[in-house]
Write a structure and sequence with these properties.
about 70% helix, PAP2/HPO, PAP2/HPO_sf, cell membrane, undecaprenyl-diphosphate phosphatase
Length: about 180
């Protein structure tokens, strides 16, 4: 029997299909949906309140401006990359694949949920405390959920994590 060469694409497809099988279990699907929804953006709007509770009003205002700048840069880059690469989502790229949810846009690279989550945690860890680095477990869960729900490939999530972290470090280094 001849073995097929292991390529990044074959690993990507294999992982998304494996995780989609897990999403067929109600407990996994529920966890994936909860994690995905936690990365929808509403939490980011509350972040200045988190900072205000743990610091001063001035720090919260500064954090608000840093977040606004960082998300403006990240969303611009995200949109440009997504609409330049035009990578199809798993259900359109893999025959017979069905996602658990319907994505809000057509293309998959990079994962915007993952990028936003990694950006948010990077900003919190830079502005408040290194203890927020533990939030990367949540951010990774957001990315994993997007693969499990069948709307992203693992490499989309990796690209989103790299984008969010990079922009977070760049902007926080310039402002904080």
């Amino acid at each position: 029997m001849r073995s097929l060469p292991l390529t990044l694409k074959s690993v990507d497809v294999s992982l998304v299909l494996h995780m989609a099988q897990r999403a067929a279990r109600p407990s996994s699907r529920k966890r994936y949906l909860w994690l995905s929804k936690s990365g929808d953006g509403w939490l980011y709007l509350l972040s200045p309140l988190i900072v205000a509770l743990s610091s001063t009003t001035a720090a919260a205002v500064q954090f608000f401006y840093v977040c606004g700048t960082a998300f403006a840069v990240e969303r611009s880059l995200y949109w440009t990359i997504k609409n330049t690469t035009k990578r199809l989502r798993p259900p359109q790229a893999i025959p017979g694949m069905r996602s658990v949810i319907v994505a809000h846009d057509r293309f998959s690279l990079p994962s915007g949920h993952t990028s936003g989550a990694f950006l948010f945690i990077t900003l919190l860890s830079q502005a408040l405390s290194p203890l927020w680095l533990l939030g990367y477990f949540w951010a990774a869960g957001v990315g994993t959920s997007r693969v499990g729900l069948g709307v992203h490939f693992p490499t989309d999530v990796c690209a989103g994590a790299a984008l969010g972290t990079s922009v977070g470090l760049l902007i926080s280094g310039a402002f904080l």
